[in-house]
């Protein structure tokens, strides 16, 4: 275990944790509101660790939907991680043991992916850095969920806290870190356009987030074409 790499991973995870705190807290509040116990809400964040998927689960539970619906919706929403993890292989191969990488990849999220890729483009990937980054981010999500579930009964309207800006702001900052060339900006703009167009043309897609999958595939394809890679 490289202590310097571990500490760097923890430091790089702090902005992510700050973004997770209001979101995880709000999830804990909503989970309590639909009848989940503090333990159930917290364990969901421990075992699932997918913000979008967890919020979808809460919405389906509130609407009285079936468990299979929650499972299928989460599979669809999280398909994008297949693309994320595939794009990380060239950086991790021969640097991080496959078994360790598989374990640490449980903490892969949109945010840890963006921060990790930004790091790997400049520094060689290490299991210590991955552990510091992914485990710290996951711990932040768990703790914020626990706090939300514990204090949920004291809050009757989470919108009054004004935390709705946290997720968009965090994604915007991560995008800025990833854009290094004109081609990156073109790909990002194209992916955003596809996402918005899909949401407008087929409104139901905004519910299951499959428009994000389409945008991801479109952006990745355009990126390959622009950079002339196969």
From TrEMBL:
Q: Which UniProt keywords apply?
A: Cell membrane, Membrane, Transmembrane, Transmembrane helix, Transport
Query: What's a BP term from Gene Ontology annotated to this protein?
Result: L-valine transmembrane transport
> Where are the membrane-spanning stretches?
12-31, 65-84, 135-155, 161-178, 185-203, 209-228
Membrane topology per the entry is: Multi-pass membrane protein
List GO terms (cellular component aspect).
plasma membrane
Q: Which Pfam families does this UniProt record tie to the protein?
A: AzlC (PF03591)
Task: Kindly list the places in or outside the cell where this protein is found, as annotated in its UniProt entry.
Answer: Cell membrane
Task: Name the protein family.
Answer: Belongs to the AzlC family.
Name by which UniProt lists this protein: Branched-chain amino acid permease AzlC
Q: Which organism is it from?
A: Thermacetogenium phaeum
